[in-house]
């Protein structure tokens, strides 16, 4: 999706486009959570898979018929819209394949800022997604999985926050009130500081299940800032390689999905106490702190020179000739 967003979205509208597209995962979670509970109770668990397949099939047909890699190859837009997108993108985005600048990417601080943010954020995301329900059940004695309505609330609010935040940040950028770098750091700050505070807060709620549920809802809601924060930042710094950059950071950021449950399990198996869980909460909060500090210092919303390898090679050639 990053590669397509880079081709289709004018720079001033990238927050909204990225936010709406990726926040769809949260909205889809709302629908599937509510439907799964109903289908399992009244039609059997098999119908969960049947329905998902029935919904996915027409979507695939629609995608193949209507979706194009770029405006240049699109059949269903006007020439006026095509010209508008091309003019807005300028020369920072090319439709042709370019050699991936591996050395420049690996030595780029803005890229590392995104990678660190993505990794740390996913540590918190997998913690909240896979482990907090267990904490609620065994420590607070409240099984939120049994209440589909409560389970769906945070994901619905995440979708709302993502869309509203994306719209607000793009408007501020268009007016010149903030830069792209500032917009990405604001969104990333929301997606890190608030969840960290919620995890620390959970350590102090003792056995208050309602307070724990409220903090989880706030944490999940605020994580929606990542869709218009560091996740959209790949497109800002290198629109020509946004898809590849996303592939790299997302691959590494998926590793917490393996070791976070293992570490939490090691800490809490046979020791389902608030003290043991607090160790996990403080660890994730510390990672969130590292995430926002490093991103605030090294993150950037500017197109990097290595986005256009040929231009960079020509500049180096001229510098050598001048010497």
Automatic annotation (TrEMBL):
Q: What is this protein called?
A: Major facilitator superfamily (MFS) profile domain-containing protein
Molecular function GO terms recorded: transmembrane transporter activity
Entries under PANTHER family matching the protein? MAJOR FACILITATOR SUPERFAMILY TRANSPORTER 3, SOLUTE CARRIER FAMILY 17
Membrane association type = Multi-pass membrane protein
Keyword entries, A-Z: Membrane, Transmembrane, Transmembrane helix
- Name the GO terms of the biological process aspect: monoatomic anion transport
**Positions of the Major facilitator superfamily (MFS) profile domain:** 1-303
Main location as per UniProt:
membrane
Instruction: Please tell me one Gene Ontology term that the record gives under cellular component.
Output: membrane
PROSITE patterns, sorted: MFS
Give the species: Gryllus longicercus
Q: Where are the transmembrane segments?
A: 20-41, 47-67, 105-128, 148-166, 186-205, 211-232, 244-267, 279-298
Which compartments does it reside in?
Membrane
* Keyword Transmembrane helix (UniProt): yes
**Which Pfam families does the protein's record reference?**
MFS_1
Q: Can the keyword Membrane be found in this entry's annotation? A: yes
Cite the Gene3D superfamilies for this sequence: MFS general substrate transporter like domains
């Amino acid at each position: 999706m990053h590669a397509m967003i880079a081709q289709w979205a004018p720079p001033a509208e990238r927050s909204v486009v990225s936010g709406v597209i990726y926040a769809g995962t949260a909205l889809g979670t709302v629908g599937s959570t509510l439907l799964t509970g109903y289908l399992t109770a009244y039609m059997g668990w098999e119908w969960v898979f049947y329905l998902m397949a029935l919904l996915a099939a027409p979507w695939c047909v629609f995608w193949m018929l209507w979706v194009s890699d770029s405006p240049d190859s699109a059949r269903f837009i006007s020439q006026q819209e095509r010209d508008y997108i091309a003019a807005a993108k300028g020369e920072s985005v090319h439709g042709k394949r370019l050699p991936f600048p591996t050395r420049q990417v690996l030595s780029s601080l803005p890229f590392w800022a995104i990678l660190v943010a993505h990794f740390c954020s996913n540590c918190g995301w997998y913690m909240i997604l896979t482990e907090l329900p267990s904490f609620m059940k065994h420590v607070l004695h409240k099984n939120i999985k049994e209440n589909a309505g409560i389970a769906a609330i945070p994901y619905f609010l995440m979708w709302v926050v993502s869309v509203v935040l994306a719209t607000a940040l793009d408007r501020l950028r268009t007016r010149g009130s903030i830069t792209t770098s500032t917009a990405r750091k604001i969104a990333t700050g929301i997606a890190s500081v608030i969840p960290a505070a919620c995890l620390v807060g959970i350590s102090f709620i003792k056995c208050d299940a309602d307070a724990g549920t409220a903090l989880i809802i706030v944490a999940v809601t605020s994580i929606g800032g990542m869709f218009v924060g560091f996740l959209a930042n790949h497109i800002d710094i290198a629109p020509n390689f946004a898809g590849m950059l996303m592939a790299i950071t997302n691959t590494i950021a998926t590793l917490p999905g393996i070791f976070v449950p293992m570490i939490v399990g090691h800490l809490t198996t046979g020791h389902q106490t608030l003290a043991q869980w607090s160790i996990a909460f403080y660890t994730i909060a510390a990672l969130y702190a590292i995430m926002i500090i490093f991103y605030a210092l090294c993150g950037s919303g500017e197109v990097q020179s290595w986005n256009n390898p040929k231009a960079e090679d020509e500049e180096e050639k001229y510098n050598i000739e001048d010497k």
